Amino acid sequence: MTPSVNQFGMQDPRAQYPAPPFPRQPQEAPGTVGAMQPRPDHGEESYMGFGRLRGRRALITGADSGIGRAAAIAFAREGADVALNYLPDEEGDAREVVALIEAAGQRAVAIPGDLKDEAFCRDLVKRAVQELGGLDILVNNAGKQVSQERIEDITTEQFDQTFRTNVYAMFWITQEAARHLGPGASIINTSSIQAYRPSPNLLDYASTKAAIVAFTQALAQQLGPRGIRVNAVAPGPFWTPLQPSGGQPQEKVQQFGASTPLGRPGQPAELAPLYVFLASQESSYSSGGTFGATGGQVLF
Ligand code: NAD
Ligand code: MG
């Protein structure tokens, strides 16, 4: 397992976590945390909360693994109750997150289901609101990424599924949630450095991530007058199941993060404080922004 690092101890960030080369590790989408070598750090051992989200109610999609798991752990340790969505196949990973949320003394509401389905997306929000007694924080984080070298290799089915998962679901869930969010609420959408610096093998995926930035910017202007903030997070390479399960070719997984100035991929635990910041009142004047965590790669 990746050694957990005290989140506040000063140290060289290059040496803080594992750097490439990594072993070959193909797995089927959507992938699991347990199959990753080295095991990612989601802050299980290290994240320390200070009550920054006390009493808040959050819905996080893709919360079973990766960036969403790190946000879920951090939110719970900051005092929030969390409803989590994931695919039914990911129940094993989700159970670990539920246990971590409950160990932090907070409520966890597990709502598995496929976000490509509009009816499910709307029901997801209704169930989260009902079970949590309302909603204050929405994190649209679930994502699909399938690497293809040539445009001819992207099927309409892939293109459609990527847009449904990354863009349509965000629209359906946010539209439904907007009926319940009040002043002080925060929406956080997971975009990517791909929105600004698209890789040739991620044509469809990068397009969805650019759409997420525009959606965030337009919605922030619309919801600002209602006291609701909307921001995007743009990660660089992060060590999550998305990448070895078809998100990148295996050679790229083995060298993942090597070309960043810090020389390694980020670990989900290193993004959690950014999600907490954007969810909390500490970021009260930040809306419509895109916040990067790219290991030194130029975002824009
Ligand atoms: P991850 O595989 O751990 O999380 C993605 C999650 O999306 C899955 O766990 C799954 O629960 C969910 N998902 C996918 N399709 C779904 C569907 N049809 N219905 C319901 N849930 C579905 O990987 P991650 O890297 O933590 O991904 C989280 C977000 O971060 C994604 O939006 C991804 O695009 C974005 N991102 C990741 C990186 C990276 O390098 N890992 C970089 C930039 C942005
Ligand atoms: Mg997962």
UniProtKB/TrEMBL annotation:
Question: Which parts of this chain are annotated as the region Disordered?
Answer: 1-44, 241-264
Query: Polar residues: which segments have biased composition?
Result: 242-258
InterPro entries hit by this protein: NAD(P)-bd_dom_sf, Sc_DH/Rdtase_CS, SDR_fam
The reply to whether Oxidoreductase figures as a keyword in the UniProt entry is: yes
Family per similarity comment: Belongs to the short-chain dehydrogenases/reductases (SDR) family.
Name of the protein: Oxidoreductase
Keywords, sorted A to Z: Oxidoreductase
Return the Pfam families for the record: adh_short_C2
Q: Please indicate which superkingdom the organism of origin belongs to.
A: Bacteria
One GO molecular function term?
oxidoreductase activity, acting on CH-OH group of donors
